[in-house]
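The aim of this short unit is practical: by the end, you should be able to scan a pair of folded records and say something sensible about each. We start with the first protein, listed as its amino acid sequence and then its structure tokens.
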Amino acid sequence: MSRITLLLAGAALLAVPLQAMAKDATVAALATPAKPAKAYHFELITKSNASPYWLAVRSGADEAAKKYGATVSFEAPASGLDLAGQIGMVNNAVTAGTDGLILAAQNPQALLKPVKSALAAHIPVVTVDSGLSPNIADTFLATSNIGAAAALAKYTAAHLMHGKGQYAIVDFNHTASTGIARPKGFMQGMKAYTGIKRMGPIQYSQNDVSTGLRIATTMLTQYPKLDVIFGANDRAALGPAEAVQRAHSKVKVVGFDADLGEIAYVKAGIIQASILQSPYDMGYYAVVALLDKIAGKTLPKRISTPYFLLTPANLGSAKATAAIRQYAPDYKPAG
């Protein structure tokens, strides 16, 4: 499948009803870059290299760079918990004089100082997926995580729990902006349903599937009337899904993202809903935004990228296939 076809398919997700654009701009607000006066070199630094999600961001950035005559170097810590490593990578990129920085911040406050150094050196900065607080980057491309998680919660409450029951949350960490926003949004979405109760505190898997498996296994024993476990990213959903499968439990798992392991669990009916983001588009349009900034164009402070609510019922649809291909370009639906 061609990358241009993938990009067009991703853009088609803008028509998906379950998305939170609100007051934010969309990628349509970005200008098509003119041919740059020189071959710019950009640095892409994500939270880790341990998830297909970040490789999809990289793939999008590489495609845009190729199209517009730039190059992109990819760096990421092996672990999403290596904050010192990520800070060092940003500092090194600034010292090396990169022409632009694309960053998915492990911590919204801890990365402020190195990003300020980049901006002071007149290096444009675009954050993707996980931003800064306050948002000092030139622009921030991301899913509306609170809105998407709230939409997932409302779907879960209405269609999977029928307005009553118990749920628990497995998050991936409590320091990344996404790790903060998604449980917040999910709990906000559940508030309208007085017959639904959250069981226990939020548990943290630290982006480790085996830790999520252990946490969820304990939940299944500790809360025998549990109906749903929400996993706040791909790693946090896979552990609970495996726990449910091993226990032959009727507990439903809902989550974020589209690791191919998650898709298998959706097909099996263990993961009953997952929010699919647009990682390829984030990487692609981050490069476009850097080129626009260098060309003197004004960027929106925040750009919302679309999301799609995947369920077993819509898994075979064209929209679902387009959404999954944001993560896995060669994905082919069965049948």
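Turning to the second protein, read its sequence before its tokens, just as you did above.
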Amino acid sequence: MEEGEFANAAPSGKSSRLRSARERYVMTQTRFPDPAELEPQTLPRPPEDPDYDADSEGLIPPSEAEPAATQGVPHKLSAIDLFRGITILEVVAHHTSGLALRYAVPDTLSFLLLQLINRTLHFAVPAFVFLSAVVLTRSLLKNFRPGRYFFRRVTRGAWPYLLWSALYMAWYVWTGQRPPETLTDPDRWLFYLQYGKASYHLYFLLVALEVYLVIPLMLPLARRRPPIVLALLIGAALQLGLYLLNREVLRLPFPASTVLWYMLPVTVGVAVGARLDEFPAWWRKNRVFLIAAAALAYSLYMPQALAYVRGEAVTPIIYSGLSWAYTTLMALTVLGVAYSLQRFAGAWRVALGVTGMFSLQVYLIHPAILQTLETLHAPGGDPLIFALTTAGYFLLALLLPALLALLLVETRLSKLLFGR
């Protein structure tokens, strides 16, 4: 269940008492769960495919896409890879901190720091939605072939969602977290697939599928190439309107499992995608103002977020509005940082970019690793041991899926499991 799901719980102007603090700490784990380089590093070539377009797959930003004559050049790390790398680090750290919160001693400094980290690292899904809108908009503005587009979305989006939903349903039964009857209950299957609840993180894949349907409908806006600031205002108005529509009319049980909850980052992503060649210059000119705006949104959002996880009363529309502002501005900031990082060279940059290339694989697999580690040995002991254990869990949950993805690159098994 996502935070947005309590939007239906109370009318505007009223505050509602949320679930207990202990339940909220559990939910942090059970709720969640793509300028020129100084010297480009080379990586394994993308799969040979006569229809393959690195730009449309979101691997290379359009301003850096290689012309056809250089098709034999190995794939280069890009700002998009670095963005994905930063964001998948945030995902794994967020979920690891959620795990640690269940074993930290309440009302201690370490407990407060974990709460702060957990709520700060809460922008990954909006950021990935934003990035999807960026790369798909740019690609479709260049060449929109509906048949090829939707076939790609089925093979690279719908298939992994269905497969990993089934795998996690089996995983939860095998590990004793759900009864065996789950696997033979058609209503339970329908519920999990309809709302992305087979595992706490799979709702993002469902949202991504809906984003794939929405982006073609937003091409008229993209062709007008709205300024980014104007897109922020348009997106905010659209997001507020959809919030009120859901609260008063639709009353969806899990609104944050739908694209309706992410129309602000989608709208901003469309605007950025339409102007991606200009974005590095826009970032250099406006980064001070953007960072200041993100910091202001963060300072307003964080007290509400901490109150929320502690089970204190919050006003849904205020909390949701601040969350949208913070996460969208952070997504823009992370993209700017990713472009800035391209000026640097070094092994750390390669590692970050490679991790970003395999962000989907890490996203899909890391919850099972965290659950296994927690079952084998829950964090505990003195603060130093507790911190080292938590850090070790983070590294294992990040590195093991990335290494597996690297071993499987360009194999049929990789395409079967991950759609790529």
